[in-house]
Amino acid sequence: MYTKKVMDHFLNPRNMGEIENPSCVGTVGNAKCGDIMRMYMDIDENGIIHDVKFKTFGCGAAVATSSIATELVKGKTVEEALKVTNKAVVDALDGLPPLKVHCSLLAEEAIHAALWDYAEKNGIKIEGLKKPKSDIHDEEEINKVSY
Amino acid sequence: MYTKKVMDHFLNPRNMGEIENPSCVGTVGNAKCGDIMRMYMDIDENGIIHDVKFKTFGCGAAVATSSIATELVKGKTVEEALKVTNKAVVDALDGLPPLKVHCSLLAEEAIHAALWDYAEKNGIKIEGLKKPKSDIHDEEEINKVSY
Amino acid sequence: MEKKIYLDNAATTKTKPEVVEAMLPYFSELYGNPSSVYEFAAHSKKAIDEARTIIADAIGSESTEIYFTGGGTEADNWALIATAEAYGQKGKHIITSKIEHHAILHTCEYLQKRGFEVTYIDVDESGIIKLDQLEKAIRPTTILISIMFANNEIGTIQPIREIGEIARKHNVLFHTDAVQAFGQLDINVDELGIDMLSASAHKLNGPKGIGFLYIRKGIRIRSFIHGGAQERGRRAGTENVPYAVGFGKAVEIAMKTMKERTKKEIELRDYLIKRILSEIPYTRLNGHRTRRLPNNANFSFQFIEGESLLIMLDMNNICASSGSACTSGSLDPSHVLLAIGLPHEIAHGSLRLTLSDENTFEEMDYTVEKIKETVDKLRKMSPLYEDFVRTR
Amino acid sequence: MEKKIYLDNAATTKTKPEVVEAMLPYFSELYGNPSSVYEFAAHSKKAIDEARTIIADAIGSESTEIYFTGGGTEADNWALIATAEAYGQKGKHIITSKIEHHAILHTCEYLQKRGFEVTYIDVDESGIIKLDQLEKAIRPTTILISIMFANNEIGTIQPIREIGEIARKHNVLFHTDAVQAFGQLDINVDELGIDMLSASAHKLNGPKGIGFLYIRKGIRIRSFIHGGAQERGRRAGTENVPYAVGFGKAVEIAMKTMKERTKKEIELRDYLIKRILSEIPYTRLNGHRTRRLPNNANFSFQFIEGESLLIMLDMNNICASSGSACTSGSLDPSHVLLAIGLPHEIAHGSLRLTLSDENTFEEMDYTVEKIKETVDKLRKMSPLYEDFVRTR
Ligand SMILES: Cc1ncc(COP(=O)(O)O)c(C=O)c1O
Ligand SMILES: Cc1ncc(COP(=O)(O)O)c(C=O)c1O
Question: How far apart are the first and last CA of chain C?
């Protein structure tokens, strides 16, 4: 059901772990939905994300989207990272099953949540960044049709 | 679905045919139900049925019950013939499928119809003989349950 | 078993050895439940999807519009009942014909008990639906027209395209029971304006107990069998993987062979019809002379009753039927023959012969001889014939 | 294919080669339609009747009380919907449990839309129905109690006899979904006071796509699938002869081997449970410790999510499931695990292993090792575990 890329990122997740004393950290999702993502970032004085790590509780897609998301933002500026959309995440993984697209939204949210934390901690305002929902409810149409 | 006995009487019907100038003849059933039986009898002055023939339009069971019915009444007195019930017909054939039991009722009726004709023609009254229905509608329970 | 002549392919067909072959791996080797997540189950899922694609191609639909069912009857029930439930708000009127299979007629009766109104359209003496009557029967509350593609008893093929046009014009859904037509006739749901279509594998050399319902994208009907999320949430129950594969294989073969196969069937059929009509008096062909299924011949022999004819043919190793198989236990004459105007006693004396391309001209010759003999024998036994001869 | 360890026998089972063998003649040789009148078809009819007798004997019923269906789901739908329709005059209240299969729950939801009221009884933390709550829920308008024999996820066996007694006492019909129990547990419908029972062949090494509904004589429910007069007029559609034969064969084998087979399964199961609970911390066994299906083990591993566990086990050629197969596409955690009181995040981390007597102790050892490794790996990845360790 998953692409090779997804399986690779699930089985060999990149940047998995914690950062001691990170610049910021964001956690999104909830256990009810079965997905929680936490993203740590180290951002230098130039606003460049020079390290990022994640931890994820969730399905294969959740792990893979977290993993790829860290790759997508690493080395980028805060502003560039903000432009990493869920679509970019899906594309980078060569696609996700319809039921799992919500995981990519969660990954996007996780980036935003970390950046929000960064902004708050540093008392700055990042153009275009909204306070992320702490709770992601994204039930797919197909799921409702079912029964 | 039919017993050996039924198949034998169906494939080799006894007493099939007509009697020229019979003492009496009775026809029962209707084409709507898919069964018509006609029974010819030759009854002598002592009231003994010394010849009987049938013609039947109908299913295998209808032919077989007619055939066995002629055997059951042949050589009997009118009074004895009156006692030939549908159950006797069924038993003599080693049974009939539930949906086909109505054929044996038809055979009983055919005997009665012929005897009624005999009584009328000779202006006599036969004890226990009722005017037969010309129309036999006997839908089985199983048939109603179906749908 | 003695060599038999099987002339009841409308009742059911032999499952082709190639079809059995295709199914076999999915019983004891690749037996995973297609809904499971592990790779082993992906074989099952893939197999079903491939079968679905073959079937979709055969009727010119998308594969996501094909839903497997437990047979043609279930597909018919689903189409009618779920449409009634989904569109009951819009209206409670359904139109069908007098010559539908019981899978449709008894479901209509069921729906009538649930407050739906059903109009049963008449057919002409060859079994063709009265289109003007159909169009006039449409009301603002009509939600569905269900007319079979081809009749299972007399083989008459309906003017499906015209019915589709009428349905479109009046914005009414159109379902067709194509159980007999599928595999024998060209079908394209878009060209014919069909919104839903039922079919069954065992009528085209597939296994008994699987069918499908085609549901055009956008039709909002729900499931008929509720439970798990199989078949895109519309038909619950663990998928019958082997039979889906077998159905796919049977359709693949049927499509590939259709032209040649039906050509041969038509030759056999027409030979049979010609001989019977010319050699046995007081006999009629039921159904339309040309607009009929390639493999169907249906006769009425006056003065005799069908079951006794069947049994005697059976004694001669000829498998045939009178009316439809599932009502042969019943005492009523065929509703189809009554609908085309036959009187009861003639309707009772009908014989259906439905061929396959495995039949031969020799078999046709033998069959004609045996029918002649038997009809003769039964007429000699018949009081109706006696009366007819007397009054002649 | 690489050697795999199949531990998902509650999802579906391998069709036994003997079962396939038994079915084979009915595809391409004895393919007659059982409803046909000719002798050739009598083989098919006889084959179905024999299978029906085997099944009837297995549950202590008459063979005329067994009706074949297209699977367990159809049987469940039939029992509920037809009872609702037949007894709706008496009342519109149905009682079931919170841990039924979706075939029951979604059918109940459907009936609720049609004006029926459904009470969903709670279970205790081991998954056993609350009998006092059940009895109190009965109203004068209650027409049916439907409680599953054994649960498909956590394996818990219900006090069926007691439920039967309560139903009897209050003159309410009692249906049980025995899809998981049939073939694994002794069942006698008379002794247990069961009025209707659903089962499915593919859970006991028979084919997928056939089941049956037992309907006690005298219960006046009609057909769910309308059409021909098959199955004594109660279930229309051409009979799936090969599968009926295969179902019969599978039941015959299952009954013969039940004692020995389940003994072996229990040994494997208990070994597995013991090792997992003692070797992996923060793990619980779901379901009742002893009143559970011989082949079912269900665990929750705290801090991790089930699907990722499954996929990693699959990478190691272990086929397992989390929740029931037909909902594994869904995002919701198992309703059964929630009903026994698990919080969401723990319910998400569940693993179901369902064995067969073909499994070995070596396989159990390998499986335990792989689960240990994987749980460990996933916990290292889990923010929930991180938080737990921090606050410890
Ligand atoms: C308890 C229970 N009921 C019903 C079903 C449905 O049976 P089937 O898949 O044969 O439709 C299943 C299995 O899928 C089950 O485990
Ligand atoms: C026209 C028609 N519709 C429906 C059916 C029912 O199909 P099935 O036997 O697969 O349920 C049949 C055959 O039995 C048929 O001929």
Answer: 45
Tell me how far apart the 2 most distant CA atoms of chain C are, in Å: 79
Which residue among A16, A33, A57 places its CB closest to the CB of D331? A33
Residue A143 lies in a domain: no
Q: Pull the structure tokens for residue B69.
A: 């019915």
H or E element in which residue A24 lies: strand A24-30
CATH of the domain at B96: 3.90.1010.10
CA-nearest of C109, C235, C69, C72 to D222 is: C109
* pLDDT over 70, % of chain D: 97
DSSP E strands in chain C: the ranges are: 5-6, 66-69, 93-97, 117-121, 142-146, 173-177, 196-200, 211-215, 283-285, 296-301, 318-319, 350-354
Find the helix or strand (DSSP H, E) in which D177 lies: strand D173-177
In degrees, to the nearest 5, what angle opens at C-alpha D180 toward C-alphas D311 and D117?
Answer: 105
**A42 by DSSP, 3-state: which?**
strand
Q: Out of B57-61, D16-20, D59-63, D109-113, which region has the weakest mean confidence (pLDDT)?
A: B57-61
Atom of ligand 1 nearest to the CA of C227: 6
Please, which pLDDT band fits residue A26 given cuts at 50, 70 and 90? very high
* Of A142, A145, A147, Cβ closest to residue C226: A147
CB contact under 8 A, B37 and C383: yes
Contact D331 A62 (CB under 8 A): no
- Say how many domains are in chain A: 1
Identity (one letter) of the amino acid at C52? R
Q: Classify residue A137: in a domain, yes or no.
A: no
Q: Is the ipTM of this complex over 0.95?
A: no
Strand ranges (DSSP E) for D3-103?
A: 5-6, 66-69, 93-97
HSE, side-chain direction, 13 A CA sphere, residue D283: 22
Domain membership flag for residue A43: yes
SS3 B30: strand
Identify the band that residue C324 occupies on the pLDDT scale cut at 50, 70 and 90.
very low
Q: Distance of CA B81 to CAs B120, B124, D209, Å?
A: 17, 16, 56
User: What pLDDT score does A145 carry?
Assistant: 24
In a domain, A145, yes or no: no
DSSP 8-class letter at C250: H
Please provide residue C4's backbone torsions phi and psi, each rounded to the nearest 5 degrees.
-120, 160
- Helix-helix angle B60-73:C306-315, to 10 degrees: 90
D178/D142 Cα distance (integer angstroms):
22
Q: At what angle do helices D102-113 and D72-87 cross, to 10 degrees?
A: 30
| Both structure tokens of D270 | 């208990």
Q: Calculate what percentage of chain B has a pLDDT beyond 90.
A: 74
> Which residues of chain B approach chain C closer than 8 Å at the C-beta?
2, 7, 10-11, 13, 16, 18, 27, 31-38, 55-60, 62-63, 99, 102, 139, 143, 146-147
Q: What is the DSSP string of D117-174?
A: EEEEE-B-TTS-B-HHHHHHH--TTEEEEE--SB-TTT-BBP-HHHHHHHHHHTT-EE
Note the pLDDT of residue B132. Answer: 78
Q: Output DSSP code: residue B32.
A: T
What distances in angstroms separate CA C43 from CA A135, C29, C68, C101, C111, one per listed residue? 37, 10, 18, 36, 40
Q: Closest ligand 1 atom, CA of D209?
A: 10
Q: Any chain D CB within 8 A of the CB of C360? A: no
CA D106–ligand 1 middle distance (angstroms): 13
In terms of residue numbers, what domain contains B56? Answer: 4-128
SS3 B40: strand
pTM of the model: 0.93
Query: Measured between beta carbons, which residues in chain D are less than 8 angstroms from residue A32?
Result: 333, 344-345
pLDDT digits (tens, 9 = 90+) for B10-44: 999 999 999 999 999 999 998 777 889 999 999 99
Query: By C-alpha distance, which of D82, D61, D299, D23 is closest to D178?
Result: D61
